[in-house]
Every structure is written in C-alpha cells, then in structure tokens.
Amino acid sequence: MPNFPEHITKLQPYVPGLAISSLASELGVEPSSIVKLASNENPLGTSKLALDAISNSAQEFSLYPDNDSLVLSETLARFHGVPRDWIVVGSGSEAVLSMAATALLTKEKNAVYAQYSFQAFAGATQRTGASHKVVASPDFHVDLKGLLSAIDSNTSIIYIANPGNPTGTFLYNSAIEAFLNEVPSNVVVLLDEAYVEYLPQEIRSPAIQWIQRYPNLLVTRTFSKAYGLAGLRVGYGIAQPGIADMLRRVRAPFSVTRLAQIAAAAAINDEEFLARTAECNRRGLDFLYDGFARLKLDYITSFANFVLVKTGDGNQISQQLTQRGIIVRPLKSYGLNEWIRISVGTQAENEKVITALSGEISSRS
Questions:
Q1: How confident is the model at residue 59 (pLDDT cuts 50, 70, 90)?
Q2: What is the mean pLDDT of the chain?
C-alpha cells in the first residue's frame, strides 16, 4: 500500500449534487420530470452569444487548446480595463483559488477563512498540507475583524467569498475596503466573486480599483453561474502581475478547453442574457421567501442565486424531496444539519419545490 501523506488521506472527496440522470433512473421517470436545485446553475440555460460562438467555430478536437487562453484573456482584459497579464484563466474559479493555494501554501503556512465558507477553500488548503484557521460566523456573516485577528506570521492567504456560499450573505464595499487596508501586504486576500452578476449594480464591488490599489488582492470570477457555462468549466482571476505570474506557473497545462475559451469570450458581453438572469433570480427569490414565510420556515436573505432555509432535519427533508424528484443540497458537511440550500429555478421549478416542502412539513405535523 502506498504511503500517502496524512493531509491527503484525511481529505474527503467532493460530493456534488445528485445527477438528474441518476435520480431519473432510480425513480423510473423521464429526466425531464426531475427538478435539480442543488448546484446553483442558471435555470435559463446558456448565454445565446456563447452558443452561437460555439456553433460557428471550427471543431478542431485533434489540437490542444491555447494554453494561455490568449483571446479570452484579451477579451477579459478589455472588459475590465486592465492589462492582459493581470488575467489568469482556469477551469472554473475553483481552479484559480487552488492555484493560489499551490503557489502560496506549505505545511508551515496557514490559510484563514470564515466558518460556512465555500468548501473549496478547505480542500485547496488541505491538499497543500497547510493548516487552517477558521473564524466563527455565528450569524452566517463573515467576521472581517475576526479574520484580521486570526492572521499570524505564518498566514499566507485569506479566502473570502462575497456573496458567500452556502450562506448567500453579503459584505458591503466599505467593510471590505476597510479590511483590505488592515491586511499585511505579504498576505494575499482572495476575494471570490462567483455570484457578483446577481448583485444590483449599485452594490457591486469596485474590484478593479481595489486590485490597482492592493497588490496583495486576487479577485476570482466564474462563467459557471450567471453565464450558464457550468458544463464547460471556465473561470478567471484578476490580480497584479506579482500574483498573476505565480498562478500561471502552477496552472496545469491546457486546462481550459478550446470550446470553453470561445464560449466565455462571447458570453462576457451578453448583457441581455445577464439582465434576464438577474431578473429571473430576483423574482424567484421573492417567490421562495413568500413560500417559506407561509410555511413558517426561517431562511437567510440571499444575495446570490440560492437560499439557505431551516427545515428541521435537513438530510431527511433532502431525501424526501429527492423521492419527489426534486434535488436540493443538504448541508450536513457544513455542520448545518437543520438547513438545506435551494437554488433558484424557473417559476415552475420554484412552485414545485414549495409545494413539495409544504407536503413534507404538513406530514410531520
């Protein structure tokens, strides 16, 4: 038996949301009848500009993709108004935050992040053998003062997701800016903005201005959520060259497929699709909130495309909903045994999950 390092043997494999095809086969129903609201995917599908770009491209599958994603990097640089060498493309924003861990962490170092943070923060840290410093979030919000207090001489990176996942909570710009002013310049702050497109324009972060001012800031974004490209796996980071160059050095070669690069370069400018996505999400959240209120269920107001709701035994409710053909996310792995996370779907899907929840809760009364 190979002698694997302890920090690897203690890793828990990532458990994704149940696949539609698997549940359809288990229940003996058509896949089209399954409602999947577990993985924060876009219920409107994919940006039409992205689909058109893929359709019009030559399918040269025998050739490796551009390792540096040159066209996509240039497109993103123009979009954000930064030099191209500030852009680092990866197979999803999770790949970029993993690059950051690889570049910055060793077994002598530590990463700091909040309780109830995106699980990829913990996974990326543990894969390096580094230690974790987890700051409590008793009200589900990131405690920025707590993060600052946790920094020590061995801290290399602080992970923050804004909005947070699975909580959906949000840190306002003034709080983040004050925090950035206090972080030592040798500690990298990774600000994961995977759900930024769901925020109203007036509260979105001035991320590019911050990056220009703080050489230790790395902002990550994804095309998996609002742009509807989850199946292609493409995201990116923005940072000054001191960070960006190191990330490119540890990035796996040819990690972003040619089709992903083409689709993302087109999708970034699809303002009409993003506007429809944001409106669908706003209406969907309002509908779910109303449903939870009628069922007397506590929930956390969300700034993302999902909502955390307290249902009692979250695992049991999740399993019961699964038997009704509805896939949601139980949160036992976060220690949130009484909660489930529900992604915002289409109106029909939202109605179906509220009706199913009502049935399950009524049966317990």
A1: confident
A2: 94
- 31 and 20 Cβ atoms separated by less than 8 Å: yes
Residue 149 has φ and ψ, to the nearest 5°, of -65, -25
Residues in the chain: 365
Q: Is the omega angle on the peptide bond into residue 5 within 30 degrees of 0, that is, cis?
A: no
Distance between CA atoms of residues 209 and 227, nearest Å:
24
The two tokens of residue 78 are 């123009």
Alpha carbons 288 and 294: distance in angstroms, whole number: 10
- What pLDDT, on a 0 to 100 scale, did the predictor assign at position 103? 97
How many alpha carbons lie under 13 Å from residue 338 in its C-beta half-sphere? 6
- Strands, E, within 193-338: which ranges? 217-222, 235-238, 299-300, 306-310, 326-327, 329-330
Q: SS3 for 330?
A: strand
Q: Which domains does the chain have, with CATH numbers?
A: 6-46+271-364 (3.90.1150.10), 48-267 (3.40.640.10)
Distances (CA, A) of 205 to 43, 200, 316, 319: 25, 10, 38, 38
pLDDT at 18: 79
Give residue-wise pLDDT tens across range 185-197: 999 999 999 999 9
User: Considering the entire predicted model, what is its pTM?
Assistant: 0.94
The predicted model gives 86-115 an average pLDDT of 97
Average pLDDT on 278-294 reads 97
Whole-Å CA distances, 18 to 39, 133, 171, 198, 229: 9, 30, 30, 24, 18
Does the pLDDT at position 14 exceed 80? no
Concatenated DSSP letters for 73-111?
HHHHHHHHTS-GGGEEEESSHHHHHHHHHHHH--TT-EE
Whether residue 103 contacts residue 249, with contact meaning beta carbons closer than 8 Å, is answered with yes
Determine how many CB atoms are found less than 10 A away from the CB of residue 63: 8
One DSSP character per residue, 154-192 reads TEEEEEEESS-TTT-----HHHHHHHHHHS-TTSEEEEE
Task: Assign 365 a pLDDT band (cuts: 50, 70, 90).
Answer: low
